[in-house]
Amino acid sequence: MAPHCRYSCDTAAQTLEWISAINDFLRPYMFLLNDHVVNFFKDRLWESIDKQWMNCLRKESVENLLKIPSGIVQDNWPASLKEFILTSRSLVLPREQVELQMMLPNLHVASLDTVLTQGMNMKKKHEVETLAAVVRSIAESTGSQTIIDVGAGQGYLAQVLSFQYNLSVVAIDASSHHGAVTSARAERIKKHYAAKTKNAHLNVPQTVTCCVMSSDALKAFSDALLQKNDFEPLEMKEIDLGEPYLEGLEVERKKPSLCSNSNMGPSLVLAGLHACGDLSVTMLRTFIECKEIKAVVSIGCCYNLLSEEGSQNSGSQCGFPVSEGAKLSGLSLGKSARDLACQSAERWRSLTKDAALQNFELHAFRAAFQMDLKTVMKIGGGHEAGGLYYLDGGGSLVALWSFLSPLQWHYGLGYPSLKALKFLVLLLSHLSTLECELC
Ligand SMILES: C[S@@+](CC[C@H](N)C(=O)[O-])C[C@H]1O[C@@H](n2cnc3c(N)ncnc32)[C@H](O)[C@@H]1O
């Protein structure tokens, strides 16, 4: 049985007590947490782990190993190992799903028109369908007229909010390529809806290419939106985002319908689906600083990309930790630990034995590759047969699967971008999309 959590976030003092307990628990293991999983193999990190623990875990079945993150221990394990696992489980922050309908009584999740879901996999469709309904419900209850989709990517969320819910939306993304895809996709969808509804005046998301680097920049952008009238195009030149943010800016204008004639004065909602690293934190900070922003609806992502004090990419306002309390408690994690924190115990537990073994193997092979690259020594020649690459020579037979799926390559090589993956694995040079749930 997984242990019951004895901590709570009901008050600031209780939250700090929880953070402090996490900090105390992690401190002795920072030498492990600060390393990438590949280093566990490459740098023989297992040698620094309790010998009794290793002796026991080496003999354990894969199925039982997969249950460790869920806090499930075996009776015959050393007491210190059991205590470590149970304490770690008791400190886990809650991840239970809330009952949306209870929180948002006016929520209605409409099923999406197929023209809107083109290009989405099942996971993305589910996320966009639900999140768009949540954003619409919150926009309605806060009387907000405009939604800024921050880190909009190819505009999936923005387009559903515009076409399905008839909201006024601005889609911001740092990538001009994504901006162009969003605009082209929106035009296609508009044609479909115009023909279906015989309405030529449809809401189309406005696409803006802009790298949001601070809450001041997002605030300036929001202020500029709020000052505009209906149908007035947004001129990025007029927005003072500061020098660093203006580089490479280009704006495509679609029909902007930014402020309605609401009695409450213009107001905005910030929305983000998988807004990477610091971008989600910037949204929260902007929400706190700008009273016209009535709500923020954000699903964070890529916590390994957050800036952290003392790390190479830390700036004046770091993305982690966000809270002053956590900062004062001295909480410091590092890139690899934040990456690890995103792993889900439920997911490990539900893996099949074969899938888990393949996962472990990929890390081991990647470590072997990395050692090879470092020494620039060839480990030997090989040949392919029956779907396996065989390493020639040597005593024991060593083989690596040659039929890896694009996602298996992507995970095994440490989540490179699609461009980098195509460069690294020639077999994948034809690949046009990569639907990674983690990136
Ligand atoms: C993981 S993708 C999510 C895209 C989209 N929201 C979705 O769920 O399909 C994150 C997006 O945020 C954009 N992005 C990352 N940092 C940004 C920044 N500082 N300013 C603007 N966009 C950014 C990236 O270009 C990328 O398109």
UniProtKB/TrEMBL annotation:
Pinpoint the Methyltransferase domain residues.
123-308
Q: Which Pfam families match?
A: Methyltransf_32
The name under which this protein is listed is Methyltransferase-like protein 25 isoform X7
Q: Which organism is it from?
A: Nelumbo nucifera
Query: What is the phylogenetic placement of the source species in the record?
Result: Eukaryota, Viridiplantae, Streptophyta, Embryophyta, Tracheophyta
**Gene encoding this chain?**
LOC104598351
